[in-house]
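Pasting as-is:
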Amino acid sequence: MIQNKKGFTLIELIIVMAIIGILAVVAIVAISGKSLDARNARRLADLSAVQTGMALTCITATTTTTTCTGAVGAEVALSTCTATSQLNFSAINDPKGTVACTETPTASCNYAITVPVLNTVDTCDYDIYAALEQGGDVTASNDIIHMTENAILRA
């Protein structure tokens, strides 16, 4: 008498699970770099928006300074600066950073602005820093974005 087998063997189920696992790993690896690229694109867009706002303030405002609490030469978080009619600094934060960037960041950092005069930044003459990620966390080996009134430079 012939018996009809119904269902899958253990070997067949293990093979299917292995294939699904391999596909999942490939998908995760492909997606993981995209979030890093998206954060870097946002950083460049944020800096471009700040540059435009600073230029508008420089050209149209009756005063071309904004208050950023810090000592002369200090680099402070851009989000701590007082808003102007063209700029809302509190809304501009690095997508991952929490500490103010310096020219050589050692940890994830937020956008930073150099205070040339005690507690004051001239919107016509400024230096703003951000760091691009190259492999996850921001480190000293990553690219530093240095923005001035004339250009966005990659160091």
